[in-house]
Amino acid sequence: xxxxxxxxxxxxxxxxxxxxxxxxxxxxxxxxxxxxxxxxxxxxxxxxxxxxxxxxxxxxxxxxxxxxxxxxxxxxxxxxxxxxxxxxxxxxxxxxxxxxxxxxxxxxxxxxxxxxxxxxxxxxxxxxxxxxxxxxxxxxxxxxxxxxxxxxxxxxxxxxxxxxxxxxxxxxxxxxxxxxxxxxxxxxxxxxxxxxxxxxxxxxxxxxxxxxxxxxxxxxxxxxxxxxxxxxxxxxxxxxxxxxxxxxxxxxxxxxxxxxxxxxxxxxxxxxxxxxxxxxxxxxxxxxxxxxxxxxxxxxxxxxxxxxxxxxxxxxxxxxxxxxxxxxxxxxxxxxxxxxxxxxxxxxxxxxxxxxxxxxxxxxxxxxxxxxxxxxxxxxxxxxxxxxxxxxxxxxxxxxxxxxxxxxxxxxxxxxxxxxxxxxxxxxxxxxxxxxxxxxxxxxxxxxxxxxxxxxxxxxxxxxxxxxxxxxxxxxxxxxxxxxxxxxxxxxxxxx
Amino acid sequence: xxxxxxxxxxxxxxxxxxxxxxxxxxxxxxxxxxxxxxxxxxxxxxxxxxxxxxxxxxxxxxxxxxxxxxxxxxxxxxxxxxxxxxxxxxxxxxxxxxxxxxxxxxxxxxxxxxxxxxxxxxxxxxxxxxxxxxxxxxxxxxxx
Lengths: 496, 144
Prior knowledge:
The complex is a heterodimer. Chain A is 71% helix and 1% strand. By secondary structure, chain A is an all-alpha fold. By secondary structure, chain B is mostly helical. Chain B contains 7 helices and no strands. The longest helix of chain B has 25 residues, at 114-138. At the A-B interface, helix 9, strand 2, helix 11, helix 18 and helix 19 of A face helix 2, helix 5, helix 6 and helix 7 of B.
């Protein structure tokens, strides 16, 4: 405990605060996301140690997710995809002159969801990591296969989702077959002429910043860089917030936070899925479902507690298995890599202090988010009026700094930014799923190592089925995720 | 016999190609399945290509999109050239970013009057300078 407290200095708390502030700004501006906030601000961590980097990044993450409720409630546009269902009841409350009450209710629900997920992270991740330590190469490969199929199964199309994941793996294999992990040091996929730039493949961070930062700027440019905010009038002095709004909401808050946290644990599923499931469950269990969508407090609390519940949940597979729970935690992997630390089953045991500091950072970020938003919401609400012609050039400059500096000054990394900005922009138009692509890119090299080591050690493909009961369970889970996707796709087809 | 059927021997010299080849095969398979699943839509789209997507009906802001791409390409080309003129100072980034931020903001601005030009010019001067100061001078991070 003493060691943890030593890591938490004034700078640490300041970075949490700065992260939350910038995150709220990104979350509150429609079209900008928490992932973009973390990706764009990553260069700010280059000169920090891991504990201070995590303070900033967790602040950005929590702030980015929480800020989305501001435009959702005030102008009926979700600031981030995870605030989609916040519009349903938040905006009708604004129309009734209850904007401040709606905002503060959402902020308080976000705090409860965030703290709940931090507790789940603290108690569940070590258990999962202890269990995962026993995995051999076979089970580790199957875990990655399961992660990819579950992401793909929740894509709009299972086939496209799997294809996108495979494409991500393929792109991650560019360059030499690394001798560090038993490879033969030979080039593959690329030619000798490209080896000067791509001997070690594409760098992760320029790729992520391109996909999540630059591509958003290109999308905005395509749409004319219009500011889609409407006029935000003076926040009416309607009914004030009181903690009494949560009376009788205990079960709803617990259920929605649990749904958010659980969905966060499933790799690659965004916050929009968490809030939609929590909102629909709150409506299903309500005695007055007809009130949902008319400015009903339980709808608002369900949505906001679920999307903040996602934050801690998404960190569980990242810490325990080394598999990112969502696109934002995929960027966090880059922050760990920068410090030379590999997340996975051994992380908590080997870096206990960092782990404790990290959980503290998540809790602190939620508390700071609450304090900032609860008491300064009238001022924060103004950020949604910042025009894009002011913001986007600054974002691009940050992207360039991040890409250039990641490998201490390689201009090809800046071009990588542009290449994957275009891939993100055009790929979405062609139907490519970005989340499976990114997870595939991150997990591709590990998948290759585990696959090849399994075959080299056992000399037969049957080992993937016969190694252990866990392997069979994982095959069962893969089959269930695919079957679920086929079933839900047919159901959607029938409904339409 | 059945055991031999599933046996695998990996030649170390060719081991770098095993996993990429499997992934490429799987990608080809899934690409074919996607095309097969969407064959009717694809055939319809190809048949009516000229009526579905005539250039006049493309509803995107070509000036801002292609202008942004052109600015980025020129910005990335000019930055290292200027950087070589002032090595280890980050001035390549700073000077090219002043110009880039000015043009990019002007491109994105809905209208341009005198007051907005002034605001854009101040932003283009201040934002890159602050970023350069923070990263290059305070954090000692390498910039072109």
